[in-house]
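Input chain follows. Return structure tokens only.
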Amino acid sequence: MKGNGKTIKKILHYLKPYWFFMLCSVIFAAASSLLALYLPVLTGEAVDLLLGKGKVDMDGIAAIIIKIAILISLSAAGQWIMNACNNHVAYCSVRDIRQSAFEKLQRLPLSYLDSHAAGDTMSRMIADVDSFADGLLMGFTQFFTGLLTIGGTLVLMLMIHKWVALTVIVLTPLSLFVAAFIAKNTSSLFKAQSKTRAVQTGIIDEMTGNIKLVQAFSHEEEAQALFDGNNEELGKISLKAIFFSSLTNPSTRFVNNLIYAMVALFGGKAVIDGLMGVGQLTAFLSYANQYTKPFNEISGVMTELQNSITCAGRVFELIEELPEPEDPAEPEEPECAEGAVSIKNVSFSYDKSRSLLTDLNLEVPAGKRIAIVGPTGCGKTTLINLLMRFYDVDAGSIEVDGKDIRKRSRRSLRAGYGMVLQETWLKPGTIKENISLGKPEATDEEIEEAARRSHAHSFIMQLKDGYDTVIGEDGGQLSQGQKQLICISRIMLSLPPMLILDEATSSIDTRTEMKIQDAFAKMMQGRTSFIVAHRLSTIKEADTILVMKDGNIIEKGRHAELLEQGGFYSKLYRSQYEM
């Protein structure tokens, strides 16, 4: 309950800007409910005009029917306006919550995204927010009118006959107790349902995003089994949650029907004793029914709200995650970007219980080509992540052009790097839009020239619409090599002062690779370049080769020097080129 209280406070924070519409909703709910409450009075008066055979006051009944028609019309109009206000409040507040979640997603550190499944994050922002919206809308629509109806009918019943009304009041807590007991015990089930649904979203997202890999390794049966297991678990949890929550309505209906029967019994006795008229009893029975009906609705709302609050709590967990440290208020930007990099006593690890980089030192003069080699897991990609400040160092510092990168804005730091990775980054859109991603103001001539230098122009012109060809997510039907050429074209267009090439030609045929290496050589002239490579033949011309192992630089030098030393690099090279 304590956690729910905190979540409710956060929900109220998002509802606060729409207080006017909430006030209008309450006003029109009150008006609609009061008009509806007056209908039994008119019905009772009409019953009293049925005095007996041949003694029916038709004129009086006709006048009452006209009043009833007017009241029903006004009540319906009030209900429509109330629902319009409720829809506005619910969907606008949900829009704001989803916007806050997406804004936080843009500012979350990479460590969060690396440690949380994409499907879970998607489930929080889509399925959980939708469930919250449904519960919120139901709460607004039925909760206000229900409370007003209960209060109004209670007053009117006391005015008609207080002792029969007290019978209703005494039995009412039974309905509340049943609803509260069931709602309390379904909260944990709805929470488990949301978590299991998030896992399922993650499985679907992973399998659809990597369907070629699944099919290539004939992993269909395993993937199906994984999904079936999760789907079975979700089905069981959902069945339990829905079963227990569905007990609320029939349970409260049983109690409410019991109350109605007691009212009919005691009311009939009062009519026989002459304490009330038949018309009053008719109105009283109608009020008793109206009084108990909202308890069914409110109990259903409470059950739905349990699910809604649980879903909202998961969304707020995402919104309240600690963002990346803010950029300094007055960042220290270098006057001109030269590309000199200094790594001083840097230590870093993803898991703080296990060290990765320890006391790493490196000086890279501007314009030099630095190759980084080593076995898998030695820290090559980690070093790139630190240079780009996707992660911050645990100790030590990294300086670019004499400025600590933590004192610079991330935007200016990353604008100084051009990256081509083994994993391609493409977005849905045209080829032209993907190439100009780093330089949106580029002209068509500049884009075409960049594509020619990367040897992508020829295959682009073979596409249906050339540079205006629209590609889907992650490149659609393009081959891996074609996608990589587009990424290389992007760097050729922007030409930043520093380059990061991580297996940049891994998916390109040998002949094209030789041409691109020549283009890279020209592009790297005067630019600080970090080259991560497994094929050591591509880094022979590097100014310095760093050999990493277990998070440390164990060898450093030019290609010929390292071969002469006969150390770890020499063994790596000979393992590739000597049979």
